[in-house]
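Sample A.
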Amino acid sequence: MMRSHLCGRLGAEQAGERVELCGWVHTRRDHGGVTFIDLRDTTGLVQVVFNPEISERSHEVAQDLRGEFCIKVVGEVRTRKAGTVNPNLGTGEVEVAAQEVEILSRAETPPFQVDGHQEVDEMLRLRYRYIDLRREEMQENLKLRHAIVSAIRRFFDAEGFLEIETPMLTRSTPEGARDYLVPSRSHPGTFYALPQSPQLFKQLFMVSGLDRYYQIVKCFRDEDLRADRQPEFTQLDLEMSFVDVEDVLDVTERMFKSVWKEALGVELADFTRLTYGESLQRFGTDKPDLRFGMELTDLSDVFAATEVKVFRGVLDAGGAIKGVTVPRQGALGRKDLDALVDQAKALGAGGLVWVGVEAETLRSPLDKFFTADERVALRKATDASDGDLILVVADKRVSVVNKVLAGLRTRLAERFDLIPKLDRSDPDAWRFAWIVDFPWFEWNDDEERWDFIHHPFTGIVGDTAQYLESDPGKVISKSYDITLNGWELASGSIRIHDREMQQRVFRALGISDEEAQEKFSFLLDAFKYGPPPHGGIAPGIDRIVALAAGQTNIREVIAFPKTQTAFDPLTGAPSQVDEAQLKVVHLRSTAPKP
């Protein structure tokens, strides 16, 4: 080994020892003929002193050292003098008196500082990701990712699950997003698809009698990106035989509790449980942030007899009127209130009614149209106090009302610091919730047909299966999500294991028996041979680690991520290939030449 110790592991107990260290020059300082550097490796920093009285040769070489030079240092560990201890450094009690130094490789001036004391454009960070990954924060994120994945594996090993790999090259099946396609050279005109999930294969494992399976697996979806999405992502995939909803929820919740205890040292409380309908009613979304209040209030009864034209029209059309109360913001100025109206419109609302609550009156553009009873009822229904701000949205579509108020609720909570600052050691900082009893179908207005919400193999709550052919909107699925602090972490379900029921579902989706056989023959054929009841779930590793690390973007916990346009500034992917490569796979490009 080129080194005897790691930089960040040195302490007073090593005082007097001769050590060999390797790492990068983090900072360099000269003081009265003595040169100091902070030497960095993956474990942290240690101060190295180059004193000509100890080694004139080493001191001479130190004059040539610059930031990010990779070096080896041999020297003696000694305790620092009184008054020079650095309490902000893990190795701050000691320093290394250099006796020898070797420059292993030189470095040009990096495109940004590694010490993290400056804001750096993300595109520049991704272009030089190998420099970005030298920063302490990024290394800590990846170490946490390793700790979490290791804890997951230990948990499922102890629970009797088998880790089994599934293919990366498979066939295209409808799973809710666009596939990434791979042309086949051996079979001209045909394509593999990169898996959006191992869904069908893990169900086949259950048919195979393997009973309990899990996998840390790469998945691929060609969809519009955002802070919690990447074109390639990692998920924990698991499946169990002879189970129902409660069994999957139990093992998954225990897994999260075990991982949080092992990786973060936190004892989690039992997860909150909400039905899909309750979550929409109270928070306007199926991934609610439970760390603060500001729950939505149904105001339809408050304005049941209203003469306010916009409210009257919505109620007569069977729509909804709902509101959210923002604490202590009733005195917002007109400019800020107009900006809130614009935000509501951007989220899909036709408009927004704001109501400032004052001691004896309400301040609102519509106040003159409210009756005295409506004013009293509004304050009571929203539980608004003096100085609060009530925001009201009305629309013929309940989904629009929920979406707009859910968006405003989150944005305003962030803006006015209503969300507690993250303390990763505080159990109350982690507000996990199960969302259950989802509808099976949702209506697609654009294509005028019913679509699945989860995936087409999702089980059905027994007595609602009667509506498959007559009223699919009433069918309830055996699916469930886990949310944490406003992010969806996982989605899963009990699967259909009856071949005839699966075909009934396909027909309800507008998939003919012939089309189903063509696309899903390997699953439907397997279902002829005694499939067991089974179910599973697939938590997203990237999202889990991002939240555990206190990050708001999963790119911060992925070693080499893509940008929001699915581009990799480091490698330049995706890139064009030459015509000879295309010819081999029987393709030609119709894209305009750059």
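Sample B, a different protein:
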Amino acid sequence: MRLGLDIGTNSIGWWIFAQDGQGNPVQVIDGGVRIFADGRDPKSKGSLAVDRRVARAARRRRDRYLRRRTVLMERLSNAGLMPIDPVTRKALERLDPYELRANGLDHALSLNELGRAIFHLNQRRGFKSNRKTDRNDNDSGKIASGAARLEQAIMAAGARTYGEFLHQRRQTDNPRQTPAVRTRMTTITLNEKPEEGYDFYPTRNLLEEEFDKLWRAQEKHHAELTDALHDTLFETIFYQRPLKAPAIGRCLFEEEERLPKAHPLFQRRILYETVNALRIREAGQSDRPLTLEERDTLILQLDGKNVKSATSANVSFIQMRKALKLGSDQSFSHETQNRKGIDCDRLRALITHPDRLSGRWSGLDIDAQWALIQKLRDTENATELEAWLMAEFSLSEACAMNVANTPLPEGYGRIGLSATRKLLERLIAEVITYDKIASQIYGDHRGIATGEILDELPYYGEILDKHVIPGTSEPTDDDITRFGRITNPTVHIGLNQTGDWLIKSSRCMASLTRSSWNWPAS
């Protein structure tokens, strides 16, 4: 018997038939469809896990804020900045924290008043920009604009701190007309066009500067305000966890992690693979591969492109035909109605733009190039990164900003550094395809079947260990946690459903007789 499967995004079509001795189908036994949910929202097509992740993140932020507030109150009380008695402490809520934050810059406050002002700083400690997350945040541009407007407004008002600015903003004889001190999305006018944005948006550094100025002004009046206490309270209020590094899959060939797509060697390998796979077509003749000279000519042409955005990092087939001086009856095998050219080495094309590093990039060896890219990927503070770029490469402020904002490729490839070096060496030396080189170096790299017969199908992550994000490898964990999973929810559910269906099918097959077919219900 032979079983055929058609695995879709939310269904599995199956068909089983009998065969004769030569393997020809002779009888249809049964068939059907198993339908299941694909794990995506039917309207947005986004993963259902996104909503759960967003809600979970909100709960965590709230829990961390409450813990931070509790710890801060405890430390303020132990230092004498807050009353230990809850009733007395509650009475401090009647004090105007904005007035305390402003007056504390020039006048002595009591320890409890200072504690009230410091506790208020913790309530809304400002937005801390992070380059690694802001790149994919649609709201980050509005926040940056709101922060810039706030800095200009503070300077125009002559305020020394954000708290003093808010106190001045609230000074009015009519309480109903008191301007808001909370950040709100509103309609603002930019270039004579109304659009949604923030009137003002406080950043973390404004609150940090205010804490320091308020503390330095008050430590003259209170011997209890030591530097050690300053550092303890500052860390309590403003500490932020570093981003959790994502799990990285394993290389298909070597025992190592996969290489990021932003790595220079990954980009070179993809470029040479693509160009080496090109064939020249001519009417009435078989497709022929490129000569080594033709290949190098195209690589040189592709490397000569430098662009501002990733969308234009490609060269058309028309330009490539001109570079090789092909006839009008000749074309490339990859040319189609929908494909008009091939991509350059995107990293090189972007980073060598005259407004960025220009020719400095080519003067760096691979290790130095990767060190720079790692700096661009990992540095969270934009100001710190731009200062480093200006000092390291003698760049102007504008060029340093452009380099820092280079749109680097996201994600990881499927092979690691060692395998990439081995493959790339051969790809450069001769006009050969990736599949042929991989087979020569690593043997049958596509087959994963061992010929072993199992009573039940194992979890797919155990078999496709090179294709999943690694798990914990702990025997006590469930299969998904232990072996890892494919991050695409549709593929993950589809593979699990296929395995579940085949397990049920195999049990039915074991009891199958010619007089009674008992296959899983569709």
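Observation for Sample B: The beta strands are 2-7, 11-19, 25-35, 185-190, 193-198, 279-282, 288-289, 314-316, 330-332, 341-343.
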